[in-house]
Amino acid sequence: MISLAREGGYWLAVIDRPEKANSLTPEMLERLCEIAEAAREAKVLVITGTGRVFSAGADLDAARAGLATSPLWERLSGALAAVPGLSICALNGTVAGGAMGMALACDLRIAVPGAKVFYPVMALGFLPQPSDPARLASLVGPARTKMILMAGQKVPVEEARDWGLIDRIVVPEDLLVTARALAEDTLAADPSHAAAIKALIG
């Protein structure tokens, strides 16, 4: 349910459980962690999903069994943030809950029209993963972070782009084409050059 295609330094990870809104089981989350950790060898890592939802976060049954508060979420976002190359979250649809951590930890976020972003931790009684609020606030500011985390707002990607949370909106058929185009300069560069530029940005 998690596939990985490698084409030289270009890695494409796909969440493929569309019948369950790409909700993540412990095994899927572990696999994503392994891919993100191994992506230190990649020049570019793109994460996307199949169907109309990028990911609804934790699988409901798994969440009730403890996945909602698993350290795997923080392990995943930490590994993504540590990728020395360019990481792109290509949102093929709505992103919700713990899956927001993946999007926040990537360098770039592109999305299809009509998708939404939301993180219903207030309603569900969970805390967000430790690094997510700071990453979100660095992109959209503290007030809009509270709009998402405390007011529980489902933010359309068109508005999220205005906030700085989404970098570009493209039609579904161009989503991965756009991701690949954004990757070209990094793919053509020496990995150490890309890593040095990324380190300067912080």
UniProtKB/TrEMBL annotation:
InterPro entries in alphabetical order: ClpP/crotonase-like_dom_sf, Enoyl-CoA_hydra/iso
SUPFAM superfamilies in the record: ClpP/crotonase
GO terms (BP aspect): fatty acid beta-oxidation
Organism domain of life: Bacteria
One annotated GO molecular function: catalytic activity
Record-linked PANTHER family: ENOYL-COA HYDRATASE, MITOCHONDRIAL (PTHR11941:SF54), ENOYL-COA HYDRATASE-RELATED (PTHR11941)
Name of the protein in its database record: Enoyl-CoA hydratase
Annotated source species: Alloyangia pacifica
Phylogenetic classification of the source organism: Bacteria, Pseudomonadati, Pseudomonadota, Alphaproteobacteria, Rhodobacterales
